Amino acid sequence: MIANVSRCGRRMVTLVDPHIKKDSGYKVYQESSAQNGFLVRNKDGTPYENWCWPGTSIWLDYINPAVRQWWASLFSTNYYKGSTLDLFTWNDMNEPSVFNGPEVTMHKDAVHHGGWEHRDVHNLYGMAMQRATAEGLVQRSGGKLRPFVLSRAFYAGSQRYGAVWTGDNSATWEHLALTGPMLLAIGVAGVPLAGADVGGFFGNPEEELLVRWYQAAAYQPFFRAHAHHDTRRREPWTLREAANRERVRAAIRARYALLPYWYTTFYRNHASGDLVMRPLWAEFPDDSKTFDMDRAWMVGPALLVQPVVAKGVTQVSVYLPGVHKTIWYDAANWISYTSPTTVVYPVTMDTVPLFIKGGTIVPSRERVRRSSALGLEDPFTLLVALNAAGFAVGEVYMDDGRTTANVVDDRYSLRSLRFGAGALRCVSGDGGRGVGEFGAPVERVVILGVGAAPRGVNVSLLGADGAAKPSSSQLEFEYLGGTKAVIVRKPWVSIGADWELRLVS
Predict the structure, then answer these.
(1) Residue 85 in this model has a pLDDT that exceeds 80
(2) Which of 148, 208, 243, 397 is the Cys-Cys partner for 88 at CB 3.0 to 4.6 Å?
(3) What average pLDDT score do residues 155-160 get?
(4) What is the percentage of the chain residues whose pLDDT exceeds 70?
(5) Distance of CA 283 to CAs 183, 275, 303, 385, Å?
(6) Tens digit of each residue's pLDDT (9 = 90 or more) over 242-269
(7) Rg of the chain's alpha carbons, rounded to an integer?
(8) Counting runs of H as helices and runs of E as strands, what totals does the chain give?
(9) How many Cβ atoms sit within 10 Å of the Cβ of residue 492?
(10) Catalytic residue among 92, 197, 330, 498
């Protein structure tokens, strides 16, 4: 089954919880019980036992480094029967959740490694488990493959080990509205790969709510639908109304198209700590009107989104920040606005208010695939949104998406994109440090904010000295005077090459 899923470019993720069933025939219980100091204990020194999904259970003491090392070894494909290198892990219930414990968690006087009581290390427990799991997934491949570990519990430092989500929410408009502020807070706290259960974990969302939740979550870092087993099925294809199925499809496609931009934004977070999902004030700290705004947010430096999070809404007021006359482009129609301004934005069920900041370049891939892995060689579209000075910058980060070669051997490619003086240039973004060869072509360039129609568009490769080589290549293009947009089709230059695309005036 795992192999069949992997053939489609997808990966399977299974639940592994911290409670260990008390069962003398269960190998993990046998081995952990036989080791001194591997179990959380009561204050009298006996193993801490309580109730969770398997029934009577014991809890491993992940605060103990020896336990983390042993736990990591369990993910070896030799030990973990039926697993492969394409199987990844979801650590649930790891606060830890204890069904009949005080406040549904472990007793505060339970004792951990070093004599620490649980009251002292409660917030560390889930992170320590996720750490051990992630280390196990790395070790099983000899350090060659990246891990993926989703954890319900997290703490400062969890960002080093995987993704998190906000836990068991409900299928209500209130919880949808709370999701954005929660994820902004988690991101500011330093945990970038975070999300919420799309549609709500408890309850049955009405179709309008489910559509709006997909539309919002498509612009949040960790994008996943999940629900309690007693709820009604709510996969997108089960929606009764065909129009709603298409709306969810459109939201998911928009997410997949922007994966190059998301991936580059996560690279920038890794390299320099830049926020992925960022509050407006983080991008516009000199605009005091943004300080209490948490219904809209930036995805990276370029995209501002304010999803609809209330029932029956027909218009929203979108504040476009920037006290220094920032240009904003409506992603739906490329109409431009100058900040600071508030746009009264009419919405239908198909609408997600999304704006592109002038001065940025957004890479995307528009081909529809059945998984992100199947699109890694697909051509790029570059959306160039000019600022008032006719300038824009962006970048594209690429690696194989699977191995650790990007870190160990610099097998990656970082490309700098810069538009100025009527020309778009693509060159190395790190002085040639990255040695990865990732050369998908550019199939379309859209330039917003061009004041007059160019007489022509040509593309040239750059020489070692950075000068454009002579070129007679005239590209097909269209100028849309109403929105001042130039659409250049089929330049077919590699994103991994040095080149210049020039508008001839």
Answers:
(1) yes
(2) 148
(3) 95
(4) 100
(5) 16, 9, 11, 17
(6) 999 999 999 999 999 999 999 999 999 9
(7) 25
(8) 10, 27
(9) 12
(10) 92
User: Residue 359 and residue 246: Cα distance in Å, rounded?
Assistant: 32
* Count of C-beta atoms within a 10 Å radius of residue 316: 19
pLDDT band (50, 70, 90) for residue 73: very high
Q: What share of the chain is helix, strand, coil (3-state, %, to 5)?
A: 25, 30, 45
- Is 409 catalytic? The answer is no
CB atoms within 10 A of CB 56: 12
Asked whether 188 and 275 are in contact (CB, 8 A), the reply is yes
Peptide bond into 96 cis (omega under 30): yes
DSSP letter string, 460-488: EEB-TTSPBPP---BPEEEEETTTTEEEE
Q: Which amino acid is at 331?
A: A
Give the integer Cα–Cα distance in Å for 392 and 387: 7
Site of tokens 């639908």: 225
C-beta neighbour count of 482 within 10 angstroms = 8
Q: What is the pLDDT of residues 476-502, one digit of tens each?
A: 999 999 999 999 999 999 999 999 999
Beta strand 485-494 with 441-448 is antiparallel
Residue 473 clears pLDDT 80, i.e. is over it: no
Confidence of residue 472 (pLDDT cuts 50, 70, 90): low
Give the pLDDT band of residue 471 (cuts 50, 70, 90): confident
Please report the beta strands in 215-333, taking only residues with DSSP state E, as ranges in sequence order.
222-225, 277-278, 297-299, 303-305, 315-320, 327-330
User: Do 104 and 57 contact (CB within 8 A), yes or no?
Assistant: no
**How does 442-469 read in b/e, with b if 16+ C-beta sit within 10 Å?**
bbbbbbbbbeeebeebbbbebeeeeebe
Beta bridge partners of 344: 317
Q: Does the structure show a pLDDT above 90 at 439?
A: no
Residue with tokens 């703490």: 155
Catalytic residue among 109, 168, 350, 409: 168
Q: Which two tokens stand for residue 380?
A: 């790029």
Per-residue pLDDT tens digits for 331-353: 999 999 999 999 999 999 999 99
Active site residue 92: yes
